C-alpha cells in the first residue's frame, strides 16, 4: 500500500480559545461527517485540519505526510497542506468571474492550461456556459458549485466542507445532494463534511463523528451512531426524546433479560452487563423502533413490552409523522414514535385516539445514570 493511501488521522487538543479534545480518522474515498450542536467545535476542528488554527498539542497526518506534530513543533502552512476547503459562505472573490475563481486554485501550468482545467471543473459541476458570471450574478446553488470546483481544482490531499448547503433553499439542497454524492464518489481522498443536519450526514457520509464541547463522543456509521448511541448524552444530542429513568427489578445472568420498573410499568430489556437490583438506570429507545399495534393484533410475541395510551400530538413530516403517546398513570409519561403516512391513513390516527404499541427488548439500550453505559444486547 502506498503512503498516499493512508488517508487522514488526527488527534488534537487545546483549551483556548475553544476547547478541543478530538480524535478522528478518514480513509481515502471516504466521507466523514462531523455533527454536533452549535459551539461543539466542528468548524474549529475543520480549520485546525486546514492549518488555519494551531492546536496546543496533537498530531495530524494526511496521505502519509505529517502536517502537524506538537511535540516536534512541526506545523505546515495551509498552502503546504494542499487542502480543498468549501466554506459556509463559499468565500468566492466577488470581483472575479466563476472561471477566474476556479483558476485561482490551479497553481500549475500556463494560463491557457489553467483556464482549460478550470473549465473542465466547471463542467463537472454543471456550470458550463456560466464561466463569465460573477458571484452576485449567480444563485446560491451556483455559487456553491463554483466553490466546490475551486476546492477540487487544487488537486487536494484532503477535502473539507463546512456546512456547504446552509445558504441554499430546501429544493436546491435536495438537487445538490445528488450532484455532490455523484461528484464525491469518484474521488480517492479523505473528505470531511461539517453539518448540523443528521439526515444530511446519513445521506452523504459513510461514517460520522459526534462532537460536544470539543470532545469526540462517538464515531461509526450513521446507523451505528444514530440507532445505537453509546450514552444518554449522545442520544439526547441526536434528538431522541425517549430517554427515561427506571429501577432494575430483576436480571437473568445467563440470558441478560432484564426487567425495569418505569414509574410502575415493567419494561423488558436485554442487557449484556450485570446490573444491581434496585440500581437506577436510564433506558433509551429510538422513535423508529417503537412499533404501532393495529387493533386486533395479538400481543404475545416474546421479548416485547406492550403499552397502551392516548395520542397527545401528531405532526406530519412528508411521508412520516411524529406521534407523541401519553401513557396513563400518576406520573406524566410520554413516548415518541414514528409512523408512516400509510399507517396514519389506514388507522385514522389523530390526537385523542387510543393506540397500543410494542417495545422490542432488543431495541432498548440501558445506561447507568452516572454515565457508564451498559449497552442493550441483541437476542
TrEMBL record:
Pfam families found in the cross-reference section: ABC_tran
Q: Which keywords accompany this UniProt record?
A: ATP-binding, Cell membrane, Ion transport, Iron, Iron transport, Membrane, Nucleotide-binding, Transport
Q: Which SUPFAM superfamilies match?
A: MOP-like, P-loop containing nucleoside triphosphate hydrolases
Q: Indicate whether Protein transport appears among the record's keywords.
A: no
Q: Which domain of life is it from?
A: Bacteria
- Can you give the residue ranges of the ABC transporter domain? 3-238
Alphabetical list of InterPro entries matching this protein: AAA+_ATPase, ABC_SmlMolc_Importer, ABC_transporter-like_ATP-bd, ABC_transporter-like_CS, ABC_transpr_FbpC, Mo/tungstate-bd_C_term_dom, P-loop_NTPase
Question: PROSITE patterns of this UniProt entry?
Answer: ABC_TRANSPORTER_1, ABC_TRANSPORTER_2
This chain's protein is named ABC transporter
Primary gene name: modC
